[in-house]
UniProtKB/TrEMBL annotation:
It comes from the Bacteria. Keywords: Hydrolase, Metal-binding. One of its GO terms (biological process) is small molecule metabolic process. It comes from Alteraurantiacibacter aestuarii. Residues 200-345 form the Fumarylacetoacetase-like C-terminal domain. This is Fumarylacetoacetate hydrolase. One of its GO terms (molecular function) is metal ion binding.
Length: 374
């Protein structure tokens, strides 16, 4: 991982401000990047959630230049720790259509191909043209119900309430370079390249990172009540590489205009590319934050996946079968001003077990004399 840091940062990293986590010899460390150099902030603040809450992004021990990479023996971790990991779904018109397809195909990829064209023709134009929760959206809903075209996914696509769900437990996400997992009993699944907003306990967004909201289309397609099994599995939530903090040169408007590119490279030579265009999102990111916060309390803050435009339909093995992962796929998610997140696919069964939970994190910090700096 040393020497790779520069390659996964955006081109303008020297003028930006970043924060993240790395595994050091004694345990997880909070690191910052500014002015092209790496700093260890752990003696000042021992968690990312604490750094966000108290806005501790400066200071720290200089540990070298970005060009030289992390110190020997260090490796990147997911850039979040004690924050709740939330996600929003069906926030783009295309993803809404694909979820309806999954539902009607009952999670069968071959059947989905037969449904896709007619559904796009009948529903696509409508959901692209209305503002969710508006009077026009309500009128469209009435028409679709009358035509027998309504779906629970269209409800969250154009209705007043966004789909917000818990993606992954605290401390369970993996970072750049780690293995990502899909369930071994899934036959139709895909990555979801997304912008992830990083929020404090009050819902103020302090920056963004990239995420892979790994999804099992067959499970969720059989029943929306299987959402947790489709979304929350070992190594199924990747975040990184760093959190880019908002400043005068990088703001929420840059997020609203961001493109998130996806590249899948299969072990058999398969290649798939796609782009998540944030400008096409149906709900503004700050509206999603407001809906995620709602009447909840997140004392250690939260992060929020914004959803994706990308839903791969390109056939991989046989005509009409669509896309699904193979073990050994390399998934690269990148955005020009946020960075690059790259992971290799395995099964959740075979991925490294998640053992470093909240209790172990607290014990580690206590042994290092850092528990009061969390």
């Amino acid at each position: 991982m040393a020497g790779e840091i520069k390659d996964i940062l955006p081109g303008d990293f020297a003028s930006g401000h970043f924060i993240g986590r790395a595994q050091g010899p004694d345990g997880p460390c909070v690191i910052a990047i500014r002015g092209g150099r790496l700093f260890d902030l752990t003696q000042d603040v021992a968690s990312i959630s604490g750094a966000v809450a108290r806005r501790i992004f400066t200071g720290g021990r200089d540990i070298g230049s970005v060009e030289d990479g992390l110190p020997d023996g260090w490796s990147l971790l997911s850039p979040v720790d004690l924050q709740c990991i939330k996600a929003s779904g069906v926030t783009f018109a295309l993803s809404a259509i694909e979820r309806v397809i999954e539902e009607r195909a009952r999670g069968d990829a071959a059947t989905a191909a037969k449904i896709r064209a007619s559904l796009e023709e009948k529903v696509g134009a409508g959901i692209r043209s209305v503002v969710p929760g508006s009077h026009e959206a309500a009128e469209l809903k009435a028409v679709l119900i009358a035509e027998g075209m309504w779906s629970q996914y269209l409800e969250v696509a154009i209705g007043p309430d966004a789909e917000i769900f818990s993606k992954s437990p605290v401390l369970s996400s993996v970072g750049h370079g780690a293995l990502i997992g899909v369930r071994s009993d899934s036959s139709w699944n895909n990555p979801e390249p997304e912008v992830v907003l990083v929020c404090d306990a009050h819902g103020e967004v302090v920056g963004v990172t990239l995420g892979n909201d790994v999804n099992l289309r067959d499970f969720e397609g059989r029943s929306a009540l299987l959402l947790s099994k489709a979304k929350d599995n070992t190594a199924s939530c990747a975040l990184g590489p760093f959190i880019r903090l908002f400043d005068d040169g990088f703001t929420m408007d840059d997020v609203r205009q961001a493109n998130v590119d996806l590249l899948i490279e299969g072990p058999e030579g398969y290649r798939l590319e796609g782009t998540n265009v944030m400008a096409q999102i149906s709900r503004d990111p700050l509206d999603l934050v407001s809906q995620a916060q709602s009447e909840h309390h997140y004392p250690d803050g939260f992060v929020l996946f914004c959803g994706t435009l990308f839903a791969p339909t390109q056939d991989r093995d046989q005509p009409g079968a669509g896309f699904t992962h193979k073990i050994g796929d390399i998934v690269t998610i990148s955005s020009r001003r946020i960075g690059t997140l790259r992971n290799e696919v395995t099964t959740s069964r075979d991925a490294p077990a998640w053992t470093f939970g909240i209790a172990e994190f607290a014990r580690n910090l206590a042994a290092r004399g850092l528990i009061d700096r969390i």
